[in-house]
Design a protein that fits this description.
single chain, mainly alpha
Length: about 300
């Protein structure tokens, strides 16, 4: 059994073990997560992703290891935008604070499966059609421009037809029934609003994955690296929501920063047909863009007197 096969086995074992421990040991109670605790757990999940990256580096070499760290950084950065949408969804669906972590848990479980399918499709397209990198690259650049102009259709998910359709075709109870997804009311089996919430979370995460999966394919064409980076980014997304959802307005340059990141990786993907840019350079550029965006937001907040 070669090293790559062992890593393919290790990935689901590590992710599933972390999820089981998280749900049934660390957060088995339905309760809101304090901000301080959320930051600690975000660091733990982020550290787990970095440790797995170190394992990849040690087993497959520095080139593949750098590809993982670059892809992981891209996926984690784009996850911040997911948090904003999740916050709007929770408000629109009136999800109680104590049930939001559980909704995120099951919604992200579904999202991991859906992203895996999307990654497989994307990999097959890139392998079959030589011109597909141009399509993906152009798509990322256009998406970056739309994001910079704040015209993303998922910006206000409470107006989305998906929520209307879910409520129209599913018998939904009027109120939440603790953590239950299915209940029987007057002899009729019905889904609870929590069930609608986790489906909506998975759906909108998939919408974002349509942007982020091509972005990481601009870094590597290795499906294992793409899947691993997505899995660990999603693993930390649950606590990231509780850590920063209430202070997202402080990241005043979030949208343009992420837009530039998408534009950069789209440009790199197109350029790769003629010139293969070293992954370390691409990683350095992405870190520089994110750092400038964060520093600009901090400076703007200080000028406005909000810090």
């Amino acid at each position: 059994m070669d090293a790559t096969t062992l890593l393919w086995i290790a990935l689901p074992v590590v992710v599933l073990t972390a999820l089981v421990l998280d749900l049934f040991v660390f957060h088995r109670r339905n309760e809101a997560i304090p901000t301080r605790s959320a930051f600690i757990w975000t660091g733990i999940w982020g550290g787990l992703g970095l440790l797995f990256g170190v394992l990849i580096w040690a087993v497959l070499g520095p080139t593949v290891g750098t590809e993982f760290f670059t892809g992981y950084l891209i996926e984690y950065s784009l996850s911040v935008d997911n948090v904003a949408v999740f916050a709007i969804l929770f408000t629109a669906l009136a999800v109680p604070a104590e049930l939001r972590y559980r909704a995120l848990f099951w919604g992200i479980m579904i999202a991991i499966v859906l992203r895996g399918m999307l990654i497989a499709i994307g990999g097959a397209l890139l392998e079959t059609f030589w011109w597909m990198p141009f399509v993906f690259g152009a798509f990322l650049i256009i998406t970056g421009i739309r994001m910079a102009r704040h015209t993303d259709p998922t910006e206000h998910p409470e107006d989305s037809k998906i929520l209307t359709l879910l409520r129209r075709f599913l018998p939904v109870t009027e109120e939440y029934h603790q953590q239950k997804l299915l209940v029987r009311v007057e002899g009729r089996r019905m889904v609870t609003p929590l069930f609608v919430a986790l489906l909506a979370l998975a759906f909108f995460d998939l919408m974002f994955a349509v942007d982020s999966v091509p972005a990481i394919y601009a870094i590597t064409d290795d499906p294992f690296i793409v899947l691993a980076a997505n899995a660990f980014a999603l693993l930390g997304l649950r606590t990231l929501y509780f850590a920063i959802a209430s202070s997202l307005e402080r990241f005043v340059y979030l949208q343009p920063t992420l837009a530039i990141v998408l534009g950069w990786v789209g440009f790199k993907m197109i350029l790769a047909h003629w010139f293969h840019m070293p992954v370390l350079i691409s990683l350095s550029v992405i870190i520089l863009i994110l750092t400038i965006g964060i520093l600009a937001s901090i400076r703007s907040n200080r000028r406005a007197g909000t810090t």
